[in-house]
Amino acid sequence: MYGRGQQPGMRIGPPITPPVIKQIMIANALVFLAQQVAPETTLYGSIIPMAFWQFGYLWQPFSYMWLHADFWHIAMNMFMLWMFGSQLALAWGPKRFLRFYLICGVGAGLIIASYPYLMMGVHPEGLTARTLGASGAIYGVLLGYSLTWPDRTIMLIFPPVAFRAIWLIPGLFVMSMMSQGGQNISHIGHLGGVIVGWIYLRRKGHANAIFSLAQLKSRWKRHQMRKKLRAVRYQEFEAQRRDKDQDNDRKYH
Predict the structure, then answer these.
(1) pTM for the complete prediction?
(2) pLDDT in tens, 44-61
(3) What contacts 120, CB < 8 A, 6 or more positions away?
């Protein structure tokens, strides 16, 4: 992974893991172990909209973000936190990063708890649906990363594609919507983390957070210009190669 202003090359993961990232990962791991020992931790800690609004389970928008459904759920979230959160914590400092992480997670939890009441006529079963996981906070971190270093290049292992960090959030939304397990993914939680993170950054004026339609159009135009430039360079390369082949043919014949 590298970006403008960095030394060219490929690097997997951050150069340093800040203490605040380690502490968040350890806290999640300890809670996950507690879930295995005491299953009621999951029962009372997950967000259930009806329990939050009608039965006073007011801790759930905070507790749900430390719970996970299985090993792969926590492994993926912690990997994303380590991969992208480490560099953000180094740039922002531990207090600012932790505040942002918690605000995104809790804010996404409140949106998860409130959304079913707005859609009661369409999906009334959402009132008793259970949601858990750190994804809301993680998506907020991904937003902070992509707005802090929008032109940094990210290379995925699978599928093997490279793209600018500014397209990280849209790309992940598309991938999650297309995944086979998409029905068990809280897209509202992911979107909630992004919305809360964007509002927070916009109000604070941090990380170039003015994410407007004009900015998207400008970046799309630059992308198209780079694409045309690569095509021209490829044509020039092919023309030079054909000229060399013709010169070689003349030498041998």
Answers:
(1) 0.77
(2) 999 999 999 999 999 999
(3) 126, 127
- How wide is the angle at C-alpha 161 spanned by C-alphas 170 and 65, nearest 5°? 45
- High-pLDDT (> 90) share of the chain, %: 53
Residue whose token pair is 């968040």: 24
Amino acid in the structure at residue 181: G
pLDDT of 233 strictly over 70: yes
Mean pLDDT of 248-253: 54
Greater pLDDT, 204 or 206: 204
For 67, counting Cβ atoms within 10 Å of its Cβ (0-12 exposed, 13-18 middle, 19+ buried), the class is: buried
Task: Say which range, 38-42, 204-208, 225-229, has the weakest mean pLDDT.
Answer: 204-208
Distances (CA, A) of 194 to 17, 19, 46, 95: 23, 24, 20, 20
Does residue 61 have a cis peptide bond before it, meaning omega lies within 30 degrees of 0?
no
Packing angle between helix 187-204 and helix 94-118, nearest 10 degrees?
130
Burial of 66 (0-12, 13-18, 19+ CB in 10 A): buried
Going by C-alpha positions, the residue among 132, 162, 149, 161 that lies closest to residue 87 is 149
Question: Do residues 86 and 18 make contact, with C-beta atoms less than 8 angstroms apart?
Answer: yes
Tell me which of 134 and 170 has the higher pLDDT.
134
CB 209 within 8 A of CB 202: yes
Decide: 32 and 77 in contact? Cβ < 8 Å. Answer: no
Query: Between vectors from CA 185 to CA 180 and to CA 189, what angle results, nearest 5°?
Result: 155
